[in-house]
Amino acid sequence: MRIAVIGGGPAGLYLAILMKRDFPASRITVVERNAADDTFGFGVVFSDATLDAFREADEPSYRAITQSFAYWDDIEIVAKGVSHRIGGNGFCGCSRRTLLLLLQERARGLGVELEFRRDAAPEDFPDADLVVAADGIASPIRERHRHFMVDREKLELTPDALFSHCLPVRRNVKVTDEVLDSPRAIHIDEAENRLHVQKALLHALLTGEL
């Protein structure tokens, strides 16, 4: 199996890690337009619940994250000169650059190919069984395929159709506000074990079980 991931941010790297770990015979390449240690934005913060999900999904990267991040379990709120400290809120955080380098190291250790300072498009990988667009919020690939987004015109093609999506949803990326806020939209809370369901469906699709 040949997988190309366009975008070397945390999401693209983590997907590559999980796929290479579970399908070691696959050839997986992550292509990033920037340098390996370039980053945009500020620090990254994960809650205890997110850390638990990381541990369940991939123990080695979880250990690397928790050993490198700063951890705290209280929040201080200052209002009108008065400080209020609230405990029991477990979080860990570090710079985005640190997270990227940790995930890159884990990916390389599994045999994922990493390429930096290269612009890429889906057509650059004609032999790929799967091309993943993970190129950020201003994704050129997503913009090219914007016509796949669910909007009012598509919904009206089937007058009795309903739109259903598991929350959270990225508004005006997968679906327009007009559809999402309409009476014909059904919102479903975050699915339990969502990551494992996605991986199981992806495995079934790639192996021909579906």
Q: Which short descriptors sum up this protein?
A:
single chain, 210 residues, alpha/beta, three-stranded antiparallel β-sheet, four-stranded parallel β-sheet, FAD/NAD(P)-binding domain
Q: What can you see in these coordinates?
A:
- The structure is a single chain.
- With 210 residues, the protein is of the alpha/beta class.
- It has a single domain (2-148), classed as FAD/NAD(P)-binding domain.
- It contains 8 helices and 9 strands.
- It has helices at 10-22, 48-57, 59-68, 96-110, 140-144, 152-156, 177-180, 194-206; strands spanning 2-6, 27-31, 43-47, 70-79, 82-95, 113-115, 130-133, 163-166, 185-188.
- The strands form 3 sheets. It has a 4-stranded parallel β-sheet, with helices on one face. It has a 3-stranded antiparallel β-sheet with strand order 3-5-4.
- The protein is globular and about 55 Å long.
- The mean pLDDT is 85.
Give the SSE map.
Elements: E1 2-6, H1 10-22, E2 27-31, E3 43-47, H2 48-57, H3 59-68, E4 70-79, E5 82-95, H4 96-110, E6 113-115, E7 130-133, H5 140-144, H6 152-156, E8 163-166, H7 177-180, E9 185-188, H8 194-206
Parallel strand pairs: 1-2, 1-7, 2-6, 8-9
Antiparallel strand pairs: 3-5, 4-5
Helix pairs in contact: 1-4, 2-3, 3-4
The number of domains: 1
Rounded mean pLDDT is 85
Q: Tell me the quaternary state.
A: single chain
- Tell me the radius of gyration: 20 Å
Fourth-level CATH superfamily: FAD/NAD(P)-binding domain
Order of helices and strands: EHEEHHEEHEEHHEHEH
* N-to-C span: 16 Å
The main sheet orders its strands as: 6-2-1-7
Strand content: 25-35%
Could you name the ranges where pLDDT drops below 50 across 5 or more consecutive residues? none
The number of strands is: 9
Classify the secondary structure makeup into a structural class.
Answer: alpha/beta
CATH class: Alpha Beta
Q: Could you say what the CATH topology is called?
A: FAD/NAD(P)-binding domain
Largest β-sheet summary: 4 strands, parallel
The CATH architecture is 3-Layer(bba) Sandwich
Give the CA-based shape. globular
Number of helices: 8
What fraction, in percent, of the residue positions are helical? 25-40%
